[in-house]
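Backbone shape codes
____________________
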Amino acid sequence: MQLDISARGVIGPLYKAARAKEGRALTVAAVDLLIKSIKPGDKVIIATGWVDQPVIAPDCGESDGPPGAVALARALRIGLKASPVILTDECLVSGIKQVARSAGFQCVPPDHLVHSIEQDKLLTMAVLPFPAGERGSQAAAAAVLDELQPTVCIAIERGGMNRAGVIHNMQGCDTGSSQAKLDYIFLNARKRGIALLAIGDGGNEIGMANIAAAVRAHVPYGEVCNCPCGAGLVPATPVDVLLTATVSNWGAYAVASLLALVTGDIHAANTGEQEARTLAVTAEAGFHDTISGSVTPGADGCSAQTHIAIVNLMHEVVEKGLKANSACRRK
């Protein structure tokens, strides 16, 4: 998940900083947190989606994030019998529902999720909008947490507010004025003792506060941004475990793969076939590659073939690991 195929040049120092802070493999830390925090039927909030070009395309999001969120939701549903709920901007709800269906999910209201687990029927998730605006986001965060009572909140490629409350893109420009500030979910959840996991790749996502010094030192505009706030793009919202990857989707796929290995159910892992279908639907739903600037299957400047290859490699590791584990048990 940390192969710098896209040659952005930041994953090395970001991964090193996150790994040093955690003191162990980041996927192990993430899966450990999930397994300890989730019981069958528990709701898990997954925050994703990013309207990264609010001036050019104010109702459109990037293709990194939603595929990973859906793949990890599937792993949590299959491996841990969790009830996943994706939170995103209202304008992205319809598109993310399309991405979810590409992975086999039926999208239902949150209070219906537990029934599919009890009856062992259908893969279900909920996809809900979260309001934009400072006051609306703060009030909604408390209400959402009160209603859903999640045991884990996960952010995947979700822009985070810096100490001035501004969300930036990688050019150091303000992209948060029209976005839902999902940081408030994580800040409120932290006060309630809810487990928090974040996955990011560039340094401007929720959770990167864990390695703020590394972001300031190695990411352009980390120290001083390109907008009037002047506070840099490094977010101020911390989490329990931060996982960094070259592409955030890959980080989510890696966690799903390890969950499959630990739970012994290979169906929890993403597959190349599934990835191809999801990336195609992601483009059809209007999500764009931020680096190539095109609405085509792929993410962060890597083609669909590259993403499929990464997923196939991860799946091969799971297959071989499960066979090795089975052989050890027989002995």
Observations:
- Residues 11-330 form a domain with the inorganic pyrophosphatase (n-terminal core) fold (CATH 3.90.1640.20).
